[in-house]
Design a protein that fits this description.
globular, five-stranded mixed beta sheet, single chain, 15 helices, binds protoporphyrin IX containing FE, Cytochrome p450
Amino acid sequence: MTVGRPILDRSASALAKGYAWLPDLRRRNPGPLLRTRVLGRQAAALRGPEAVRFFYDEDHVRRAGAMPEPVLSTLFGHGAVHTLDGPAHRQRKDMFLSLLTEPREVAELARHAAECWDDAVEAWAERPSVVLFDEVPRVLTRAVCAWAAVPLGPDDTDRLASDLVAMVDGFGTAGPRHWRARAVRKRRERWLEDLVERVRSGHATVPTGSVVDVIAKHRDVDGRPLDRHTAAVELLNVIRPTVAISWFIAYAGHALHRWPHLRKRLRHDDTPYAVAFAHELRRFYPFAPYLGGLAATDLRWQDEDIPADTMVLLDVYGQHHSDELWDQPYAFDPDRFLDVPPGRDELIPQGGGDRSTGHRCPGEDITVALLATLVPRLARLDYDVPDQDLRISLRRLPARIRSGFVLEMACSGALRD
Ligand code: HEM
């Protein structure tokens, strides 16, 4: 079978409908492959663990040329590892894996995050209320910059935190949020280019083996150091997504409020439960809607043809809410991950497949560790949740809680049992 007449061009509605776009289309057009159009191109959307393995086979799907310019100019940066294929990707990816997956380093970053959180909580207790989604990015910015050896002046944290959030917040819209994200990225790339130059010239020193040091010294597959712009882009690709974990911490506030019985279990620092909770946050709440690449050649998927250069979409949100894969997918239930760790290609909030050969996120261990460190701390805080708009629109890309999740702290800060 060849690609038939596609359902109308839905690229505009992709932005407007956000996370529900592919799941809604699939409900109306059941079958293994969904055909549509995105940004003027034919597109084929897939989901399910077998589809993940198909999508992450480099002979099937390539990344070069697949990423829309507005996403590169806000979220990832031009020349980022996300856009590479083959040996060039492998060499750059090894650098990220060496920095981000060593258990001692992951634990060290979690230790920084715990310290910064505990400091912040002391200050929150002095204020009538705080917005979790404003505060957590500051905590994570301080932590990741200290860990990565990115120097921050005493007054830099708040501005950098807000810039890093803006880069993530602006990729999926054409409005002012998007233009702010572009401007902020340019400014922050220049700032980090300068840091890389100073480190390389010996005008600034950073610890050997730190993120800044490793990126400044990294050599690509052609044997040459990264140009200063690409080095800055990749430095941002460590600190920006670490701060993006704030989305899930705000979602944790939402979950603990909606299902208060879960709070008790988290309070007692039961690590396996905290890890299961982190996985369920990443499954249940919306963040990456889908992933895309281009068909590297003429492909065949479950008796359906996908011509070369078709945009292949992996429906992340749809997969996480499919009743073919999950028991009661719309129930928030961390227990589903308590005794059974997530299947590699079933839970894919940060991509699927093998992280060392494909594009799966190298920051997954860090994400789970920071959530398992900070969410129990949140559960142990004593706060009230005043009336506010807690809706999460699935039309907004990326989704977020409208109010940002406002807490009113009790005097002690610690929980009354
Ligand atoms: C790739 C999500 C945290 C660094 C990705 C991908 C997704 C993702 C969906 C793309 C997978 C693909 O293209 O197939 C997330 C989410 C995070 C998170 C939802 C938590 C909020 C992190 C952290 C780091 C990180 C903490 C680093 C400290 C990267 C890098 C890539 C990537 C460098 C590119 C990998 C490649 O192209 O090979 N992430 N990520 N991410 N992520 Fe994350």
